[in-house]
């Protein structure tokens, strides 16, 4: 008798995880050969799902050859790194993921989108670095339309801006200058500042502290950064984003950081140095919060990896995530962890789960 279909699907997903192209197709064919040849029922649905995975893989291979900006979606969430040229995006990607990307101290080192995987709280977060956007990107200068198009399929963004002042002869943004450092007008608002060294923040991922900026300084962003933000506005306006303030080890970075905080009220700003490691853990924590994901473990599975699901999911939602048939037959659940009043609490289908819960699902009898 074959193993339960839900367990079989989990095993297949485990084998497919992190693969692509010819290797993914090879593994999918091997898994297909192991499945019973049922024409109806859960195993028939499993065969259909696996066939769809194979077709998606074939289409990705074809698209990759025809479009240099295409990056296959992978992992539990996708976060895109956006920034002007020479902002430190490649160094940040390498520091977070350990990826072997090319890093150079000059603009346009990255000439096509690059993807790497960040393993975060047992979730696999796909980070995609988009080449630096230049003024006129929306009119396709520097292949800007292609890169902006590639950036649109994201669950969130990391806005990468270096803590650098204006270059010789460069103006500060006129809006910020005229309003005393707050581009929205009125008194400066608190921002979430995750930092292990300056401004009293917390490198280890504890609660962010609000930093209130007052008075007639800072004086606004350098105009080259404002031009970049104008080009990226179309994608940033539809998804959440956090600000990675890179090159925090440069002289005078602290003063520029205040400018960033005033320019992005209400946003999480994380000062980063890939040279010293400052802020990297704070950035990982901010990425996790932005994805809106949580971990739920199964009491019935032999696999250690949890289900990675949207935060705030109910027991019913978890069952639907696993399989439609399980969701239809679900009666109740036992829960261990943060959402339970005591270990093994029996709960109904509407019970709200929390990150780190362990769950055992029960089907209706008869």
Description:
Helix 2 runs antiparallel to helix 3. The protein folds into 3 domains: 66 residues, no CATH class; 215 residues, P-loop containing nucleotide triphosphate hydrolases (Rossmann fold), CATH 3.40.50; 71 residues, Roll (Ubiquitin-like (UB roll)), CATH 3.10.20.30. The protein has 366 residues and is an alpha/beta fold. The strands form 2 sheets. An 8-stranded mixed beta sheet has the order 2-3-1-4-7-8-5-6, sandwiched between helices. The chain has a 5-stranded mixed beta sheet with strand order 10-9-13-11-12. Helix 8 links the parallel strand 7 and strand 8. The protein contains 11 helices and 13 strands. About 17% of the residues have low confidence.
**What is the CATH architecture descriptor of the largest domain?**
3-Layer(aba) Sandwich
The shape is: globular
Residue ranges: pLDDT <50 for 5 or more in a row?
62-68, 102-110, 140-144, 174-191, 196-218
Please tell me the total number of domains.
Answer: 3
- H/E topology pattern: HHHEHEEHEHEEHEHEHEEHHEEE
Radius of gyration: 24 Å
CATH level-1 class of the largest domain: Alpha Beta
Amino- and carboxy-terminal Cα gap: 21 Å
Helix content: 25-40%
Could you please say which CATH topology of the largest domain applies here? Rossmann fold
Calculate the mean pLDDT score and round it.
75
Structural class: alpha/beta
Main sheet characteristics: 8 strands, mixed
User: What is the beta-strand fraction?
Assistant: 15-25%
Give me the number of helical elements.
11
Largest sheet: spatial strand order:
2-3-1-4-7-8-5-6
């Amino acid at each position: 008798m074959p193993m339960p279909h839900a367990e079989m699907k989990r095993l297949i997903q485990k084998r497919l995880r992190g693969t692509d192209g010819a290797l993914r197709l090879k593994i999918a064919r091997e898994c297909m050969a192991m499945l019973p040849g049922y024409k109806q029922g859960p195993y028939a649905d499993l065969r259909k799902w696996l066939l769809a995975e194979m077709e998606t893989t074939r289409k990705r291979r074809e698209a990759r050859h025809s479009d240099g900006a295409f990056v296959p979606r992978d992992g539990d969430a996708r976060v895109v790194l956006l920034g002007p040229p020479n902002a430190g995006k490649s160094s940040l990607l390498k520091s977070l993921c350990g990826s072997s990307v090319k890093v150079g101290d000059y603009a346009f080192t990255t000439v096509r989108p690059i993807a790497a995987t960040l393993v975060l709280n047992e979730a696999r977060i796909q980070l995609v670095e988009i080449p630096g956007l230049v003024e006129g990107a929306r009119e396709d200068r520097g292949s800007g339309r292609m890169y902006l198009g590639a950036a649109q399929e994201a669950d969130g963004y990391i806005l990468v801006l270096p803590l650098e002042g204006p270059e010789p002869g460069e103006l500060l943004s006129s809006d910020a200058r005229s309003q005393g450092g707050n581009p929205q007008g009125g008194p400066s608002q608190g921002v979430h500042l995750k930092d292990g060294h300056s401004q009293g923040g917390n490198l280890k991922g504890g609660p962010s502290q609000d930093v209130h900026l007052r008075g007639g300084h800072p004086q606004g962003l350098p105009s080259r950064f404002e031009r970049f933000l104008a080009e990226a506005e179309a994608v940033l306006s539809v998804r959440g984003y956090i600000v990675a303030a890179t090159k925090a080890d440069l002289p005078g970075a602290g003063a520029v950081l205040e400018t960033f905080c005033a320019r992005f009220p209400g946003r999480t700003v994380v000062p980063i140095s890939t040279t010293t490691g400052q802020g990297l853990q704070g950035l990982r924590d901010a990425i996790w919060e932005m994805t809106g994901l949580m971990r739920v473990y199964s009491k019935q599975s032999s696999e250690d990896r949890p289900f990675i699901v949207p935060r705030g999911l109910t027991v019913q939602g978890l069952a639907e995530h696993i399989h439609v048939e399980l969701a239809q037959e679900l009666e109740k659940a036992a829960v261990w962890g943060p959402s339970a009043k005591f270990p093994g609490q029996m709960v109904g289908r509407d019970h709200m789960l929390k990150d780190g819960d362990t769950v055992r699902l029960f089907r209706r009898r008869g």
